[in-house]
Amino acid sequence: MSSVSEYAQKAKHASHIMAGLSSEKKNEALLSIASALESARDDIFLANKKDLLLAEQSGLSMPLQKRLLFDDKKLQIVASGIRSLISLPDPVGRFLLGNELDTGLELYRITCPIGVMGVIFESRPDALVQIASLCLKAGNAVLLKGGSEAAHTNKILAEIIDAATVSIGIPQGWISLLTSREDVNEMLKQDAYLDLIIPRGSNEFVQYIMQNTTIPVLGHADGVCHVYVNEYADRDKAVCIAVDSKVQYVAVCNAAETLLIDESIASELLPVIARALEDRNVRLHGCEKAQAIYKMLPVDKWHHEYLDYEMSVRVVNGLDEAIDHINRYGSGHTDTIVTERREIAEEFMQMTDSGSVMWNCSTRFSDGYVYGFGAEVGISTSKIHARGPVGLEGLVTYKYKLFGNGQIMDDYASGRLHYTHKEIHPKE
Q1: What is the pTM of this model?
Q2: H/E element, 76
Q3: Most buried residue, 1, 250, 256, 428, by most Cβ within 10 Å?
């Protein structure tokens, strides 16, 4: 039996126990994690320095090195995120629906943990802490596989989280860290034990995961996000939103990759936005109309996730063309419109087929922590189960609980008794 299979079996066993943990016990475990991480800061930073040195020696790009960094600021953020989870309501055990089938026969739909999660994430060690904390709060066990560039940091973080939680009564085996590419392939075979896989990475990688497992997969392939500057946009807002969406953090999936601008204002406003982007070292790739207005490189392809200081630009003929472009070439992740006309913004948000649609604000707000979810386990562009930033609610499913008093089906099948089907709510 492979070590991955052993991890999966232990996680399955642990998940059954975790489903019954009280809110108090889970919150105690989260507090224990936050305190343990803060106490081990020196060891964490030492491990992270090893990863950073290897990344520099291997020529890893600066944006990706920035994602790899786990310093005091990152530690403060993750610790704060964990403590914010404690203050959030328990997602498990929430009432969703009540239906009286007949007098004394009551049906309730109640949230419950999914079970065992397999999460594959990029070389960002703070993601490990966020994912583990969210899974714990939602009562799930988890198998984690991070990027090899963060191997030393991920190892110590997983060890700290494991020790901090098991010491206060969370079942052993609820968290395991996989370390190799071979482990990923082995994890994809564990359909008897894993309930959901969440991959975070390139389009090619996510597609590979989807095509090579029978386990349900939740995630997004890429983040081709758009800023659409409508003809009724405020000039200053347009510049600020376009720049922030692109450069505030270029190496993340909610950074904007394409700028759309209405033809009626392009000759006036596009040069202003373009210069502001170039001042932040962004290299632009434009359509023929955009190139005629401002000097930039031609576009190679519209569905392109740069994750770097590059951006595509297209001049469009109004709202309908902008929406059509996004729905055709976007990834269903996050798209924003800049306009002063509410009716136009509402049409844009209604017709654009994305997990997050925005009006007069940066695409960078598309984030689980920002949305008030405590953190996120990932971004989903799926339309089944969960969509957008996946926080606690995306890590639970539901079950039906039927309370009776000796009723049998034959009484209803024969017509002796009849269903009432009345909406009810749980008794206080």
Answers
A1: 0.80
A2: helix 72-87
A3: 256
Q: CA angle, corner 117, sides to 73 and 254, nearest 5? A: 45
CA-CA distance, 159 to 128, in Å (whole number)? 11
- Compute φ and ψ for 37, nearest 5 degrees: -65, -45
Among left, alpha and beta (phi > 0; psi -120 to 50; other), residue 378 is: left
Closest among 180, 146, 162 to 67, alpha carbons compared: 146
**CA pair distance 335, 361, nearest whole angstrom:** 10
d(CA 356, CA 381): 9
Encoding tokens for residue 62?
Answer: 């600066």
Residue 70: burial class (beta carbons within 10 Å; 0-12, 13-18, 19+)? buried
Pull the structure tokens for residue 140. 């799930």
Q: Residue 427: exposed, middle, or buried by beta-carbon count in 10 A (0-12, 13-18, 19+)?
A: exposed
For 73, list phi and psi in degrees, rounded to 5: -65, -45
CB atoms within 10 A of CB 278: 15
What is the Cα–Cα distance from 203 to 212, expressed in whole angstroms? 14
In the predicted model, residues of the chain with pLDDT beneath 70 are 1-2, 220-221, 374, 428
pLDDT computed for residue 1 by the predictor: 53
CB 127 within 8 A of CB 70: no
Q: Reduced to 3 states, what is the DSSP secondary structure of residue 397? A: strand
Question: Tens of pLDDT along 92-127?
Answer: 999 999 999 999 999 999 999 999 999 998 888 999
What are φ and ψ of residue 212, in 5° steps? -125, 25
Using an 8 Å Cβ cutoff, are 317 and 263 in contact? Answer: yes
Question: In the chain, what are the domains?
Answer: 3-219+390-397 (3.40.605.10), 225-365 (3.40.309.10)
Phi and psi, residue 13, nearest 5°: -60, -45
Helix (H, G, I), strand (E, B) or coil at 256: strand
Q: Quick one: pLDDT at residue 390?
A: 82
CA–CA gap between residue 217 and residue 150 (Å, rounded): 24
User: What is the structure's pLDDT at 41?
Assistant: 97
- With vertex at residue 153, the alpha carbon angle to CA 147 and CA 156, rounded to the nearest 5 degrees, is 125
pLDDT at 428: 60
In the chain, the amino acid numbered 172 is Q
pLDDT of residue 221: 64
